[in-house]
Amino acid sequence: MVRETDKIAARSESVTLFLCGDVMIGRGIDQILPEPSDPGLYESYVKTATRYLELAEAECASIPRPADLAYPWGNALQELERVAPDARIVNLETAVTQSNDYWRRKTVHYRMHPANVGCLSAAKIDCCALANNHVLDWGYAGLEETLATLKRAGLGPAGAGKDLAAAVAPAFIDVPGKRRVLVFSCGAHTSGIPHSWAATHERAGINLLKDLSNRAVQEVAQTIEGQRRHGDIVVLSIHWGGNWGYHIADDCRSFAHRVIDDAGVDVVHGHSSHHPKGIEIYRNRPILYGCGDFVNDYEGISGHEEFRGDLALMYFVVVSTATGELIELEMTPLQIRQFKLNYASDADGRWLCDRMNAECGRFGHYVEAIGSRPFTLRLVDP
Predict the structure, then answer these.
(1) Is the pLDDT of residue 373 over 90?
(2) Measured between alpha carbons, how far is 34 from 31 in angstroms, rounded to an integer?
(3) Beta-carbon contacts of residue 21 (< 8 Å; ≥ 6 apart)
(4) With bands split at pLDDT 50, 70 and 90, how would you rate the model's confidence at 127?
(5) How many of the other CB atoms lie within 10 Å of CB of 254?
(6) What is the pTM of this model?
(7) Each residue of 304-324: pLDDT tens digit?
(8) Which pLDDT does position 178 carry in this prediction?
(9) Residue 44: Cβ within 10 Å count
(10) Residues 208, 199: contact at Cβ < 8 Å?
């Protein structure tokens, strides 16, 4: 990373990215928004999305219905206003559709009514990564409507499309007076994505990697080479790994290193884990192995409490427009409560600080706490 003494000058020639993990605004959260979908579900034990709302209210307090479209973002909106990032990138883990053609070989199905797409616009999101294990929950008609709805709203989708060429194509974010940000989205089978969801030359779907081999790296490199212009900042958003646990598989680490070395990726934006995982800085490029959940309807659901899945992080990544190298990485801890993002307490912020120190320390990086209300974390070298 850039030395502390050089950061002030470097920021004038930088791009600030907001990144986060899974934004799951379907199911229970969709039910509190102005135009909820049909609440019917096809899960083993839960048959209506309103049940997730009941579980959450039993855990905390009543949740407004209908809630304003900006409601789920809570204090995150204040942080976005404070930092004013140049580009805002999320992993959207829900279909945006009225389709009833649920995927019958899956047990969980997320959807948000298209009329509620303003929930994403409320946070001024620039790009929604879609190569994940929920975007096709409501079939190909659901995917088609999701893509059309996001495009109409100016919410640049990446990672899914009408065919393979569309699925591998990036979202382009123009930063006035600076550089373009290119977001490529892909997924791995390890995150639970069905093999049949892979886009082909003849079929719609997502940009699904066959594996994390050197051949996969070269395919990513070829895709990026075909779209990148000199000076572009390249983000690779990847949905990989299981939901719980801090272990980072060797093939994930090798793949992340290789896409930086061979494909020229500047930021690896990993997600799928329900809690934040470690961060590695490799050749002055950040690898976020797992950004954790950001918005979900899990309140009142027991299990895995030791991972504190109710705590979330906003990642603000500052990179040089000249080199693409990392200048600074700060994180704001939040807590999901009443289906809304709230500033984490100092105690919860320090818990996250200690946890991230343990995980980032494996790579020789550490996290320090700065300020209060909002409590902020900063990644630092030893």
Answers:
(1) no
(2) 8
(3) 91, 271, 273, 276, 290, 291, 292, 293, 294, 312, 313
(4) very high
(5) 14
(6) 0.96
(7) 999 999 999 999 999 999 999
(8) 87
(9) 8
(10) yes
Contact 282, 261 (CB under 8 A): no
Residue from 299, 276, 224, 225 nearest 27 by CA = 299
The mean pLDDT of 292-300, rounded to a whole number, is 96
Give the pLDDT score at 6. 55
- Determine contact, residues 266/319, Cβ cutoff 8 Å: yes
Alpha carbon distance, N-terminus to C-terminus of the chain: 11
For residue 65, being part of any structural domain is answered with no
At 72 the three-state DSSP class reads helix
In this prediction, residues 120-149 reach a mean pLDDT of 98
Number of folded domains that form the chain: 1
Whole-Å CA distances, 359 to 7, 18, 278, 322, 356 = 25, 21, 5, 30, 5
Q: For position 116, which CATH number holds?
A: 3.60.21
Cis bond leading into 176, ω under 30°?
no
- The CA–CA distances, whole Å, from 4 to 7, 11, 327 equal 5, 11, 9
Is residue 186 assigned to a domain? yes
Whether 59 is in a domain gets the answer: no
For residues 214 and 354, give the distance between their C-alpha atoms in angstroms, rounded to a whole number.
35
Q: Say if residue 9's pLDDT is above 70.
A: no
Helical spans, DSSP H, in 95-226: 118-121, 139-152, 164-168, 214-225
- 111, 94 contact by CB (below 8 A): yes
208 CB burial (10 A radius; 0-12, 13-18, 19+): buried
Query: Which residue, among 286, 253, 129, has the nearest Cα to 193 in the 3D structure?
Result: 129
- The verdict on residue 39 lying in a domain is no
- Give just the sign of the alpha carbon dihedral 197, 203, 204, 210: positive
- Decide if 221 contacts 251 (C-beta within 8 A): no
How many angstroms separate the CA atoms of 189 and 132, rounded? 9
**∠ at Cα 90 (140, 58), nearest 5°?**
90
What's the domain range around 176?
4-25+70-380
Give the model's pLDDT for residue 381: 75
- Kindly state the average pLDDT of the residues 155-161: 98
Task: Concatenate the DSSP letters of all residues of 210-241 into one string.
Answer: S-SSHHHHHHHHHHHHTT--TT-EEEEEEE-S
